[in-house]
Amino acid sequence: MQRQGFVGGDTVLRVRVAGGALLVAHLAFVAWFTLRPLDVPWVVPANLHPFAGIRADLALGGREAALRIGEGLALLAPLGFLLPMVHGRLWASPVGSLIRTCVAGALISLGIELFQTGVPGQVVDIDSLFLNTAGVALAHLVVVPAVRHSLRRRTERRRRTTVRQEEPAQGRTPTIPRVGIAP
C-alpha cells in the first residue's frame, strides 16, 4: 500500500482552495475586529503580566468570565482547522500538525498584539495571546483528527474500488504464436 502525501488530486485542490479562501476571509475579519480604532473615553493600561487578565475576568463572576474567556478562545480558533486545510496533507503526523498549527496561531496572535500598540483605543494584553493560542489548539484537536480520518477512509475506499475495476474479469488473454507465411 502506497501512502500518498496529499489528498487525491481533485480533492486536494478543492480543499486547499476552500481553505485558502476561508483563511483569507477569517484573517480579514480578525484584522478588522482587532485593529480598528475605538472611540473610548479612557484606556486601561496594557496587561503584560501573564494570567492577570484571566484572574480579573474570573473575579467578575461565572457568566461574564465565561463570555470574556470564550471570546479570547474563539477569536483565532478557526485557524486550528483552516491552517491544516490549506496545507492539505492527509497523512501528517498528528503531533507535528498540532505543533505547526499552534506556533502559527501564536505568531499571528503576537502580530495582532504588536499591531495593536499603534491603534487608538486598543490595548495590548498578554492573556489574549495565551487564549488565542489555546483556542487554536482546541479547535485543531477537536476537528482535524476526525476529518483526516474520514478523508483517509474515503480515499482508501475509492482506491480499493478503482483497483477492483481495473482488474481483468477473466484473467489474461491467451496469445497464439504466429507462424510466418512462406513466399
TrEMBL record:
Pfam families: VanZ (PF04892). Residues 24-143 form the VanZ-like domain. InterPro entries: Teicoplanin_resist-assoc (IPR053150), VanZ-like (IPR006976). The chain crosses the membrane at residues 12-35, 65-86, 98-117, 129-151. Residues 153-183 are annotated as: Disordered. The keyword Protease does not apply. It comes from the Bacteria. Residues 153-162 have a biased composition (Basic residues). Keywords: Membrane, Transmembrane, Transmembrane helix. This is Integral membrane protein.
